[in-house]
C-alpha cells in the first residue's frame, strides 16, 4: 500500500488516494495520517535486510549469465553463508525482477555418414560413470552470426559434467572440428585407457581419423540408435544450456566473437556454475573431491618414490 501511494502521490494527493481506496474497499487501508507516520518511522529491519539481499541476488543473477532460477539461486545464497529459505528466495527474486531462463529446443546438426556405423551402444541411456575419464559424450551445435553459421563441438565428462574439450569452426564439412575438441580432451585427461566415448551417428564421428585417434589412446567408441535424441541426451543437454545461457542472449558478429564468449562460458560452466545433477556443486568441486579420494596413477607413483 505504501509503495502504491509513493508511486502515485505526485499525480494525486495522499489524502485523495487514501480516501478513494477506503471508499471502494473495506478496511485494511491507510489514512493519510497513518501513511505519513509510517514514512516517518523509516524502513523496518526486515525491509532493510530485504534490500541488501535483493542487491546480492541481482549480483549473483548477473554474474551467472542471468539464468539462475529459484532453486539454483537458493543454493547459491546458502553457499555464500546466507540463511534463507526457498520461498523467501522466490519472493526476493520477484522483487528484484529476475528469474530463471528455460531451455529451448536443441538444433539438429547430425549429418548421416556415407558408410555403415558399426559402433555398439555401450551406454544404453545410462549417463552415469564411477569417476572422471570413464565416459565422455560428444556432440556438435551451431550458432548464427552476421557472417554465417559457426559450429561448436563439445566433449563432456559424464561423471563431473566438466566440458573437457571444445572447438569452433565456420565450417562443418571438415573432420577437424570434433577432432580438435577430442584432442583437447585427451590432453587434459589424467588417464584414457578403458574410457568410453559416446556420440550420435554424425559423419564427423564415424570418420576413420577420428576413430583412429580414439583407438590410439585406448578409448572405445559408442553410439546410440539412429534418429533417437535420447540416446545422446546428456550431450544435447550441454548444447541446449550453451544456446540458452549464452548464444540466445545477443547477436553475434563472427566466429571470433563467438569463440571468445564460449571460452568464458566454458570456464564458468566448469568452475562456477551450480549443476542440479551434481547436488548443486560445480564440476571442479566434484573432480577435486574424487581425485582427493582416488589419486591418479602418476600421483601414487610420486608418493611411492618420496
**Spatial sequence of strands, sheet with the most strands:** 3-2-1-4-5
Spell the H/E element sequence.
HHHHHHEEEHEHHEHHHH
Oligomer: single chain
The parts where pLDDT drops under 50 for at least 5 residues are 299-306
SSE arrangement:
Layout lengths: L1 H7 L5 H11 L7 H10 L3 H19 L6 H10 L6 H11 L38 E11 L2 E10 L5 E7 L6 H13 L7 E4 L3 H4 L1 H9 L3 E4 L9 H13 L9 H17 L11 H11 L3 H9 L1
Parallel strand pairs: 1-4, 4-5
Antiparallel strand pairs: 1-2, 2-3
Task: Explain what the structure shows.
This protein has 306 residues and is α/β, with parallel strands linked by helices. It is built from 13 helices and five strands. It has helices at residues 2-8, 14-24, 32-41, 45-63, 70-79, 86-96, 176-188, 203-206, 208-216, 233-245, 255-271, 283-293, 297-305, and strands at 135-145, 148-157, 163-169, 196-199, 220-223. It has a five-stranded mixed beta sheet, with helices on both faces.
Based on the model shown, name its key terms.
RNaseH-like_sf, Transposase_IS3/IS150/IS904, 13 helices, disordered C terminus, alpha/beta, Integrase catalytic domain-containing protein, 306 residues, RNaseH_sf, 5-stranded mixed β-sheet
